[in-house]
Specification:
The complex is a heterodimer of chains A (about 450) and B (about 500). By secondary structure, chain A is mainly alpha-helical. Helix content of chain A is about 40%, strand content about 5%. In chain B, the strands form five sheets. In chain B, strands 1, 4, 5, 6, 7, 8, 11, 12 and 15 form a nine-stranded mixed sheet that branches. In chain B, strands 2-3 form a two-stranded antiparallel sheet. The chains are: A mainly alpha (about 450), B alpha/beta (about 500). Chains A and B meet through helix 14, helix 15 and strand 1 of A and helix 3, helix 10 and helix 12 of B.
Chain lengths: ~450, ~500
């Protein structure tokens, strides 16, 4: 009953704080215009008296908010100190106004400056708590167009198989979504979860893990309760566990809540693995490429060559001659400044010939190469063997000769070569049996049995 | 008189003070500060790179998605009228046992139907089902050719929609809202990615089956997006686009000069008014000029090799779904971003022969079965399936009950509209091969697991194109709008 009352008062903190803010701002404005106004002193006494009174209420309500709202002392500490300072300053100024002798030597201007400054600091720190540390940074960045670069961390299942499930997957979830309210400084329900020893101790109702009937574990039950239930964890207002996180934690508890058992032993379902890990190696190379400069881009675009990053913040480029079908072998020199940036090159339908290959070998990061509907025969395609990243080659409707097909077996990372030819009237049926169908696509499908 | 002069003088004084140096310094400093700040802030922008800020005046210039997409094109096959999942993909042997028995009370309680009244009879599956392919997924004997491509496809068997009338449901499926005014998914895609081929529209629409969708042309409309992003509908019969040929006595050069002059005037207007619709007009003139050459070429299926024509089963010169499938492949290989196919005639109520599950419906199945299988295989052999997403579905599904319009059994076997659970499928880049997500109860009436919404499907399509559907917005009437409104979750279960 009393607890709920205190919680209620705490909830009013964001409202109450605006009372002293209003008083102080009004007071500073009057102080700044006191010569013009002539009646300022009496008003200022009144204003700063009430600023102090409401300020004390703000601090009290703020304290209740901290106690019951699930905040760490570290997060509120500075805001609290700044708040107390604000009130002390207001009250000191009031004392000076009623001509208390201690404050006589301090100039009024100093009070005004200090009051304004501390008010801004307190307010900002408060904002950080309710809206998050980044609440100003984010819109400013958006305003000027700086996008927070996402760091590309790749986590492969194979690298983690042998590691304990708890430390590699469960711990990070608990750290992100539980520890805020269950740690050494703040332990709601007397439960601490910041390390395994404390986690096993449990809270005021005893252990949160039940080894005999895992499904009756407090932790298990609470994460499964509907969000609206009071006992649901994390609380409705906090960051919720995702579907996959709930099933992973459940699986961990169901299988004996072991801290050592490796990920492999849990035999996770495919969708869980896909959620927590990157299963396939990225298609495009995982290296950094330099930023292509505007001058060369302009020059290339002037020649009606389409050039764009593979996605907005990438320095890797996809280049296509789709809007310049007169593209000839020599035109490839336009791209010489950005050789290493090009990962996807489409020269389909253009006027290129086999001698293009001697130029293409300099595109070290080339991953996808499309030469459909050209007169390519495949002579000298061996020059591309050095391209370690080349994964897909499109040679649909070209004059590609059978004798060169074998060269592709020397390509290290080649995943697929498309050699379908509309005009190829089943002359070389044995292609389908002679070559690895996983890599070579000769097409010519028929819907008849 | 005196009073009037006084007033006038006061007016002059006020006027003068508004133009004085003092006024400027006193009252305009904040504004000047703001202007200076905004300049200073933009100067801070280190990303002033040509590749990242597409400053081109061409609204259809190709650009990059925020994330690495899996596909660059989409072919969306919409079966207008809502095909019956119970005669195609959702195998429900239990429903056989209830055939012709009155519908259990529990299925009708609190439900509203488009036509069913009172207690209808249950209707067992009107087709034989068979497991096909290596995946062993179910398909009915209505789609024999589909068996050949079943392993390429991921099924969604518990899609739900909250609309049970054609128009609103189609709008919902294509624009994310059952009411008019929102951009279609193809418009969103071209707005976000532009068009690779500058000689062709980025978003093209083809219809077949003899009718246009109930939702009308808003299904491929651009809504509040600039109208340059709306779908371009090609005629399915005769000249695909009218007036492609120059009139007598007008040479192509003369036309070029004319368009240049018009565009020059329009560019000046744009500089004055910054109205995106002026850019639309400029680019449409340009597009029309280039389309004169490009469209007859891409829309001509006569020059395709015979084995391709046979595979699709095309009939050149006619309006047919097979022709449209082949055209869709041609368009995608020429760099068209979004191809939308509508096939009309799937509203199998059983109220006439054409709408009967044993009659017209079976003919519809024959019309689409071969072309769809051919489309998938043709895309595959050209390497296009890896970078194209193929989506198949209707605007909703159909009831396991036989329709009794106004309480009287219909003349032919048919089913009513049903939005709680129906089947759609996707195939192509980024899609798992041979997967099934979602399951319905033993009658195919309610979802049991894996229920996905229309917004989920849209979120998934945008995801495959490289967009985060929650961040892909357009500001209109003072707030940002999304295709998926405030909902939608990517269906990861069918992603490779």
């Amino acid at each position: 009953m009393l607890d709920d009352f205190l919680i209620l008062i705490g909830r009013f903190h964001p409202l109450i704080v605006h009372l002293p803010i209003g008083f102080i701002v009004l007071g500073i404005l009057i102080e700044l215009n006191k010569k013009k106004l002539g009646w300022s002193n009496e008003a200022l006494k009144f204003i700063f008296f009430w600023a102090s009174i409401t300020g004390v209420f703000s601090i009290i309500s703020g304290f209740f908010q901290y106690q019951n709202g699930g905040y760490l002392w570290e997060t509120v500490q500075n805001h609290f100190i700044a708040g107390v300072l604000t009130i002390i300053l207001s009250f000191s100024f009031y004392l000076k106004l009623i001509e208390n002798s201690i404050f006589k030597p301090i100039p009024r201007k100093l009070f005004t400056i200090a009051n304004s400054f501390i008010l801004i600091v307190t307010g900002h720190l408060g904002g950080n708590i309710t809206h998050g540390e980044e609440h100003l940074v984010e819109p400013i960045n958006n305003l000027v167009g700086i996008n927070g670069e996402k760091t590309l961390t790749v986590k492969y299942y194979e690298d983690f198989e042998e590691k304990p499930l708890f430390s590699s997957l469960i711990r990070p979830i608990i750290d992100e979504k539980c520890v805020r309210c269950h740690n050494s400084k703040k332990s709601n329900g007397k439960l601490k979860m910041h390390n395994s020893v404390e986690l096993m101790k449990g809270g005021k109702n005893g252990s949160i893990i039940n080894y005999d009937t895992p499904e009756m574990s407090e932790m298990y039950i609470r994460i499964h309760l509907p969000k609206e239930e009071k006992k649901h964890m994390p609380p409705k207002s906090g960051k919720q566990l995702t579907r996959q996180e709930i099933s992973l934690i459940s699986k961990w508890i169901e299988n004996g809540s072991s801290f050592e058992k490796s990920i492999k032993d849990f035999k996770l379902e495919e969708n869980i693995i896909n959620y927590f890990f990157d299963t396939e190696k990225p298609f495009f190379p995982l290296i950094e490429a330099s930023v292509p400069d505007n001058e060369s881009i302009r020059k290339i675009r002037k020649n009606k060559i389409t050039i764009n990053p593979i996605y907005k913040n990438s320095n890797f480029l996809k280049v296509s001659s789709i809007n310049n079908l007169d593209f000839k072998n020599d035109d490839i020199s336009l791209l010489s400044d950005i050789n290493e940036n090009v990962v996807s090159l489409d020269l389909s339908d253009s006027k290129i010939t086999d001698s293009i290959f001697s130029q293409l070998k300099y595109f070290t990061n080339l991953t996808v190469l499309k030469l459909n509907n050209t007169t390519i025969t495949g002579k000298k395609i061996n020059q591309l063997v050095e391209l370690k990243n080349l994964k897909r080659i499109y040679l649909v409707n070209t004059n590609f000769k059978d004798e060169y097909i074998n060269i592709f077996t020397q390509f290290k990372n080649l995943q697929k070569v498309y050699l379908y030819n509309e005009k190829d009237n089943f002359q070389n049926l044995d292609r389908h049996t002679k070559f690895d169908n996983k890599i070579f696509e000769f097409g010519y499908y028929s819907l008849e049995d | 008189m005196n009073k009037k002069i006084k007033l006038f003088n006061e007016f002059l004084l006020k006027n003068a003070s508004a133009n004085s140096r003092r006024h400027f310094l006193k009252n305009c400093t904040l504004g000047m500060g703001g202007i200076a700040l905004s300049n200073f802030l933009t100067a801070c922008n280190s990303e002033n790179n040509l590749l990242k800020n597409n400053s081109s005046l061409n609204p259809l210039a190709p650009s990059s998605p925020p994330n690495l997409g899996k596909v660059k094109s989409v072919i969306y096959l919409h079966m207008v009228g809502a095909p019956s999942q119970l005669e195609l993909f959702d195998n429900k042997p239990e429903l056989h046992k209830l055939h012709n028995k009155p519908c259990p009370e529990s299925l009708l309680k609190g439900k509203k139907f488009a036509f069913i009244e009172g207690v209808p009879k249950m209707l067992g599956p009107q087709a034989e089902f068979k497991k096909a392919g290596d995946s062993g997924n179910w398909v009915s004997n209505n789609l024999p050719y589909f068996q050949k491509i079943i392993d390429e496809v991921s099924f969604l068997k518990a899609v739900h929609t909250d609309q049970f009338n054609h128009g609103p449901a189609q709008l919902f499926m294509h624009t994310g809202s059952p009411r008019l005014g929102r951009p279609s998914i193809g418009s969103w895609a071209t707005y976000g990615l532009g068009s690779d081929n500058q000689d062709l529209p980025g978003f093209m629409v083809l219809t077949s089956g003899g009718g246009t969708p109930d939702g009308g042309k808003s299904l491929w409309g651009s809504g509040f997006l600039p109208s340059v992003y709306q779908g371009v509908q090609c005629r399915s019969k005769g000249d695909p686009v009218l007036y492609l040929n120059d009139p007598k006595g007008i040479s192509r050069d003369l036309k070029r000069d004319l368009i240049n002059s018009i565009n020059e005037i329009n560019s000046d207007e744009y500089k004055n008014y910054k109205d995106p619709e002026i850019l639309t007009r400029i680019s449409q003139y340009e597009m029309a000029y280039r389309m004169q050459i490009a469209v007859p070429e891409v829309m001509n299926i006569n020059d395709e090799p015979d084995h391709i024509k046979e595979m699709y089963g095309v009939t050149p010169g006619d309006e047919s779904f097979a022709n449209n499938c082949l055209l869709a492949r041609k368009m995608v290989s020429k760099g068209v971003r979004f191809v939308q196919l509508y096939d009309w005639g799937w509203d199998s109520h059983g109220d006439n022969e054409e709408n009967g599950l044993m009659h017209g419906f079976k003919r519809k199945c024959q019309q689409i079965d071969r072309p769809i299988a051919a489309l998938i295989l043709d895309l595959k052999q050209r390497g296009l399936l890896d970078e194209t997403l193929v989506v198949w579905g209707g605007e909703f599904g159909r009831t396991p009950m036989q329709e009794n319009r106004s309480g009287v059994q219909n003349a032919y076997t048919g089913r009513d509209h049903h939005g709680d659970a129906f089947t759609m499928w996707m195939a192509g880049g980024g899609i798992k091969k041979g997967a099934v997500h979602g399951e319905t109860d033993e009658f195919g009436y309610k979802p049991v697991s894996g229920r996905v919404s229309v917004h989920d499907i849209q979120a998934t399509i945008l995801h495959l194109l490289g967009f985060d559907h929650e961040k892909f917005t357009y500001d209109f009437q003072g707030r940002p709008f999304r295709l998926t409104d405030v909902e939608g979750e990517i269906i990861r279960e069918i992603l490779a």
